[in-house]
Amino acid sequence: MAARTGAELLAGLNDDREIWVGDDRVRDIAGHPAFAGAARGLAEVFDLQHAAADDCLFPDPETGEPINISHMIPRSKADIQRRHRGLRRIAEHTVGVMGRTPDYMNVTYAGFAGCSHEWAEHGNEEGAARLVEYQKRLRRDDICLTHTIIHPTTDKSKGDLPRLDNDVILHKVGETANGIVVRGARILATLAPFADELAVYPGPPLPEGAEKFALSFCIPMATPGLKFICRDSCAGSLNRFDHPLSSRFDEQDAFVIFDDVEVPFELLHIDGNVTVYNQVMAQSWNSNVMQQTMIRAWTKLEFAWGLATAMTEAIGDTSPRTMEMLGEIWSYATMVGATVRAAEDHPEDWGGGVLLPQQKPFMALRGIVPTWMPRVNEIIKLLGSHNLLATPTWSMLQNPDLRPLVDQYLRGADDMDAERRIRLFRLAWDYAGTALASRVELYERFYLTSGARNLQKAHRIADRGSAAALVQRFLDEPPIVA
Ligand SMILES: Cc1cc2nc3c(=O)[nH]c(=O)nc-3n(C[C@H](O)[C@H](O)[C@H](O)COP(=O)(O)OP(=O)(O)OC[C@H]3O[C@@H](n4cnc5c(N)ncnc54)[C@H](O)[C@@H]3O)c2cc1C
């Protein structure tokens, strides 16, 4: 099989997966009110790869079948730029509001497979080989993958490293003739209801002796014992006028429980190897996945600037304070864009012929963008004020008594008609103010772990040479110049 259509994605969701939302164990994902809009929205992302095939598809290096560009293992600067084009196209479709369109995981596993030598150390050669085989299936079957890499929080006073007696976090409890049995929980699986398979791969480092926690594998969503507890829906309605973003982009987030799940040996990529578990995420992963996710962030910030600008034009707001805030959003977007380009223009060789964007610029973005996104939401609310809520629904506009009044009293500056003005402010509210907006803000703060941790890490691993030399000159010079 090659790149799938949206209809093929939706057909694949009808299996025995155990998805819970509100009071329901959901059997019909695409038909349930909590999921119907996003199912359709994600199906459109699958259709996009055919509609924009020049940007989104490329031939599988072994079979020649058309597959999504996000599966590419970059081997040159041209490859990185080619991948950029496709990733941008996908990000534009959801204006970055869906953080986990499948290209996120596709890029991740392309990187893992391309740099499988990072997994094939310390006795994990077989696991690495299975991972390479898995990535072939992922790309050729166009599998929609969700993932969960973080241990649930139980008691922060016990420290960051999981204690060996912790029975909450996912761990191995035994073996069968076919595989291993795992028990426990992980957070969070964004996109879970709409995915075909679940990936478990390393998160934060484990302490010595934590073999039972050191696991990595990919299994079908309908694997017996797997349970997904979804958060409350932020889906709004299916009406795209009323809820332009939350009608289609509520990608969901699920707490995952593994109630004695059997993982077949052939799907295991790490089985108890703490050394490999602790090293794989500290190598090429960051440089690779950041290209996808920062192109998404750039697109989202550009959209926010365009939206905020249109919103202020709709009410003729040209005050200096407004211009300053618009300039602030533009600056964030431009800085992300320039940094992505800088990383792509100076790729680094990760071995085996794999070339990935430079790590350092991405480390800077990873810590700081989580603070810019909430600020942009704040600006949109400051600029929009009460106008964000003076927004009749589509059915109100169809009411013959109301419509003439709405047209008269809700028009905007420069004779902007009421319908256009309402559309703009509804879009802005869905971006910055609704339940979905609040969830997306939380996502931006935490999806790459917290900005706080990432800033600390950026400082810790940075090369101090040049900065230290600038300071040293003043420390070394004689106190008095003759
Ligand atoms: C919407 C959403 C979707 C997600 N989707 C996924 C997914 O698909 N797959 C997945 O695996 N995970 C997902 N996650 C989980 C995500 O990876 C975790 O939320 C993330 O790792 C943060 O975990 P934490 O609460 O331990 O954060 P922490 O890093 O512990 O941060 C919690 C708070 O403590 C502060 N803090 C932490 N450490 C320090 C420190 N050393 N110094 C100062 N302050 C500190 C932070 O600033 C923050 O306020 C998602 C999370 C969200 C919110």
Question: Which helices and strands appear, and what pairs or packs with what?
Answer:
Elements: H1 6-11, E1 19-21, E2 24-26, H2 36-51, H3 53-56, E3 57-59, E4 66-68, H4 77-93, H5 103-114, H6 125-140, E5 145-147, E6 171-175, E7 179-190, E8 197-200, E9 215-220, E10 226-230, E11 253-264, E12 268-271, H7 274-280, H8 285-314, H9 320-345, E13 348-349, E14 355-356, H10 359-384, H11 394-398, H12 402-409, H13 418-432, H14 435-446, H15 451-461, H16 465-476
Parallel strand pairs: 1-10, 5-8
Antiparallel strand pairs: 1-2, 3-4, 6-7, 7-11, 8-9, 9-12, 10-11, 13-14
Helix pairs in contact: 4-8, 5-6, 5-8, 8-9, 8-10, 8-13, 9-10, 10-13, 10-14, 10-15, 13-14
Residues 100, 147-150, 153, 187-190, 253, 439, 442-443, 446-447, 449-450, 452-453, 456 line the site of flavin-adenine dinucleotide.
Characterization of the model:
- This protein is an alpha+beta fold.
- It has two domains: 6-280, Butyryl-CoA Dehydrogenase, subunit A, domain 2, CATH 2.40.110; 285-470, Butyryl-CoA Dehydrogenase, subunit A, domain 3 (Up-down Bundle), CATH 1.20.140.10.
- The protein is built from 16 helices and 14 strands.
- The strands form four sheets. The chain has a six-stranded mixed β-sheet with strand order 2-1-10-11-7-6, with no helix packed on it. A four-stranded mixed β-sheet has the order 5-8-9-12. The chain has a two-stranded antiparallel sheet with strand order 3-4.
- Strand 1 (19-21) and strand 2 (24-26) form a beta hairpin.
- Helix 8 (285-314) runs antiparallel to helix 9.
- The longest helix is centred in the middle third of the chain and has 30 residues, at 285-314.
- It is globular and about 75 Å long.
- The N and C termini lie far apart (79 Å).
- The structure holds flavin-adenine dinucleotide.
- Residues 100, 147-150, 153, 187-190, 253, 439, 442-443, 446-447, 449-450, 452-453, 456 line the site of flavin-adenine dinucleotide (FAD).
